[in-house]
Amino acid sequence: MGLGRLQAWMLGLPTAVVYGSLALFISVLHNVFLLYYVDTFVSVYKINKTAFWVGETVFLLWNSLNDPLFGWLSDRQFLSSQPRSGAGLSSRAVVLARVRALGWHGPLLALSFLAFWVPWAPAGLQFLLCLCLYDGFLTLVDLHHHALLADLALSAHDRTHLNFYCSLFSAAGSLSVFASYAFWNKEDFSSFRTFCVALATGSGLGFMGATRLLRRRVEAAGREPECPALAVDGGLCGEELLVGCKEAGSITLGQYLQQLARHRNFLWFVGMDLVQVFHCHFNSNFFPLFLEHLLSDHISLSTGSFLLGISYVAPHLNNLYFLPLCRRWGVYAVVRGLFLLKLGLSLLMLLAGPDRPGLLCLFIASNRVFTEGTCKLLTLVVTDLVDEDLVLNHRKQAASALLFGMVALVTKPGQTFAPLLGTWLLCFYTGHDLFQQPPLAPVGSAQPWPEPPAPPPAQAPTLRQGCFYLLVLVPITCAVLQLFTWSQFTLHGRRLHMVKAQRQNLSRAQTLEVKMV
C-alpha cells in the first residue's frame, strides 16, 4: 500500500515540478565537478603540467564544438521539409524524443562523473578522456533539457513557471557543495570517493525516474485528447501530424547557418551573451584572488569559505524573486535592470574606494550572484529566439537544441578570454604575473596554493590597488557593452507578442498544435 501511494503521489506531481527536478540531478554533480576536478588531478593524481595543459586545450576545442554538433545531430530530422518514412512528426513526438534522450544520457552523465574519482589510467590520459566524456554527456543533457523548455511551453508566463522550478531545484542541488567539504580529504580520498558514488547513484536514478514520469504524461496525453490530467499544467493535448513545408528536400547545415546569419536578434543576443559568459567566468576565476588581496585582513578563512559556497546557491534563490518579475515586466526589462544595477553598484564601489571592507565584501558577493543570476534568465531569451527562428524561416518544427548549441558555440570562448584577459590586465597594471609568481593561498578556496615570499612593502599597495580596479572596471565595461547591445535587441514587447501569435498561426496552418505547460 505504501509503495502504491508513493507511485500515485509521484504521478500526481505537476509537470513543471518533474521538469525542474532534472536540474537538481544535473547540479548535484556539476558543482562538485567544478570545485574538485582540478585539485584531484593536480594534488591527488599528481598530473604533470604538460599533460594538464594539453588536456585543457583539447577540452577547450571539444567544449566549443560539441554544442552545435550535438544540436545538429539532434534537430536535423526536424529541419527536413519531408517527414521520414512518410510518417509525420508531432510536437508530442519531438518532446518524447528529447525525454527518451534524457533518460539515456542522464545516467551516462552520472557514470562519466564517477570516472574522475577512481584512477584507472595514466593521469594525463585519464584527465583528457574524463573531461571530454563528461562534457559530452553534460552537453547532451543540457541541450535536451533547455530544448524541452522551448518545446513544452510557448508563452513567457509558462516558460518562467518552468524556469522557476529549475532555479528552485538547482539551488537544492548546489547544497552538495557544502556537503562536499565534510568529505574532502586529499590524504584519505576514500570517503570523498564514496560521497561521489552516492551523488552519482542518486542522480542517475533520479534521471530515470523523472524521464519515465514525463514520458508517461506525454503518452497519456496522446491517448486522451481532452487530457484532463495535464490541463492544470497546460499539457500537450491532441496528436497532430506535420505536413510538408513549402521548401522541398532537407535543409543543409550551410543553409541553416546562412539563415542564422540573417537573424538580427540572434546576432545581437550572442554578442551580449559573450560578454555575459566572460563576466561570469571572470568572477569565478578571480573570486579567491579578490578575497585574498582585498579582504584577507578583515575576514576569517571560514567567512571566505562561506562566501564561496553561498555564491553557488544564491544565484538560484535570487531567480526565485526575479522570475515573477519576468512574468510581470518581461525578461527584457528585468535583464536590462540587472545591467543597470551592475553598472550602478560598480560605479558606487569605484567612488567608495578599496578601504571599505564591509562594502567590498558585499560588492564581491553580490557581483557574482547577480551576474550568475542573469545567466539563468537568458535561457528564457533563447527560447524566444527559437520561436522567432521558426517564424522567420517558416520551419515545420522548432530547432530548439540546435539553436541552443549555436549560442553556446559563439559564447563559450568567453570562458577562455576571462582568465587570459584578467591575468594580462593584472600583469599590465601591477607587474604581478600569476603564472610566474607563487600565488597567495586564497581565502575559501579548495585549492591549497603555496605561500609566497612576502612582497616588498612598496609593491603590496600596487597589487591591492590593481585588484581593486580589476574588480570594479571589468563589470563597468561589461555593463556598458551589454547595455548597448541589449538596446539593439528588438524581440520584446509588441514584436515578441507578434512572433508568438505568428508561431501559433503557423502551427495551426501546418496542423502542429503547440500547447502551453
From TrEMBL:
It holds the Pfam family MFS_2. The lineage of its organism: Eukaryota, Metazoa, Chordata, Craniata, Vertebrata. InterPro entries: MFS_trans_sf, TMEM180. The keyword Ribosomal protein does not apply. This is Major facilitator superfamily domain containing 13A. It comes from Felis catus (Cat). It comes from the Eukaryota. It is a multi-pass membrane protein. Keywords: Membrane, Transmembrane, Transmembrane helix. It is found in: Membrane. The chain crosses the membrane at residues 16-38, 101-118, 124-141, 162-184, 190-210, 266-287, 299-317, 329-352.
